Amino acid sequence: QVQLVESGGGLVQAGGSLRLSCTASGRTLSGYVMAWFRQAPGKEREFVSFISWDVGFGSYADSVKGRFTISRDKPKNTMYLQMNSLKPEDTAVYYCAGRPATTDDYNYWGQGTRVTVSS
């Protein structure tokens, strides 16, 4: 079992920055793909970014490409999402998720951290 805990959300003005953290416990994340998703009020949850834990390869949704950076600290078993040039449309609850690299479904989820970007 993997337990995921997010932190770092908050209120920020448009153009500002935040860094989200997701710390995992229960097992090492070797062999896992870790990701960030978000859900805005009244909208479905959407993919933001993922990172391959072992090799560090990452990918982004077009809506955040060039503004967000995903990274991980292996010894700390922690994943980060650096969010720059934030826009009001980035307002959402952000969730971290994990899955074994051999599967397609994310079966481990955190409780979410709220990000609010004011205009």
Report the mean per-residue pLDDT as an integer: 97
Major sheet characteristics:
7 strands, mixed
In terms of structural class, how would the helical and strand content be classed? mainly beta
Could you give the order of the helices and strands?
EEEEEEEEEEE
- Overall shape: globular
Helix percentage range: under 10%
DSSP strand count: 11
Give an overview in words.
Strands 2, 4, 5, 6, 9, 10 and 11 form a 7-stranded mixed beta sheet that branches. A 4-stranded antiparallel beta sheet has the order 1-3-8-7, with no helix packed on it. It has strands spanning 3-7, 10-13, 18-25, 32-39, 46-52, 58-60, 68-73, 78-83, 92-100, 108-109, 113-118. It is an all-beta fold and 119 residues long.
Give a quick summary of the entry.
The chain is mainly beta. The protein is built from no helices and 11 strands. The strands form 2 sheets. Strands 2, 4, 5, 6, 9, 10 and 11 form a 7-stranded mixed beta sheet that branches. It has a 4-stranded antiparallel beta sheet with strand order 1-3-8-7, with no helix packed on it.
Throw out a few tags for this protein.
119 residues; mainly beta; seven-stranded mixed sheet; four-stranded antiparallel sheet; 54% strand
Helices and strands, with pairings:
Blueprint: E1 3-7, E2 10-13, E3 18-25, E4 32-39, E5 46-52, E6 58-60, E7 68-73, E8 78-83, E9 92-100, E10 108-109, E11 113-118
Parallel strand pairs: 2-11
Antiparallel strand pairs: 1-3, 3-8, 4-5, 4-9, 5-6, 7-8, 9-10, 9-11
